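Fold Annotation — chain and its backbone

Fields — amino acid sequence, C-alpha cells

___
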Amino acid sequence: MTYRAILDVKEAATPSSALFSFALDLSPGETISSASVAATVYSGTDVTPSAIISGAATISGGEVTQTLVNGTEGVVYLLTCTATTSASDTLTRTGYLVVAPATV
C-alpha cells in the first residue's frame, strides 16, 4: 500500500518544511536510522527541482522533517522521502507540494 503525506501549499519566497510520518510502519522498538528527501517536478517547469531541498532531513521518533526553500511559482513538486529502519527495512512516503505566489 502506498501512503502519501499531506503537504501544505508553500509560498515561493518563504521557507517551510515537509513532514513524513512512518510511525504506523515501525514495529515496537524499531527506529528510523537514516532518511533522505528528493524532489522532482510533477507538473510545471523547474530545471533544478532539487534546489527546493535545504540541508539534510531530520529524524524525530517515527517522523522525518525536511526544510524546503524557494521553489517556482505554479510548479507542483513530487517529494519522495526514503527512510531506512533499524531493522534494515526501507520505507517510502511521497507527497505533492504546490508552490504558490505570496499572499498579499
Q: What stands out?
A: Residues 19 and 92 are 13 Å apart (CA to CA). Strands lie at 10-11, 16-21, 32-43, 53-60, 63-68, 76-85, 90-100. The chain is about 0% helix and 55% strand. The two ends are 40 Å apart (CA to CA).
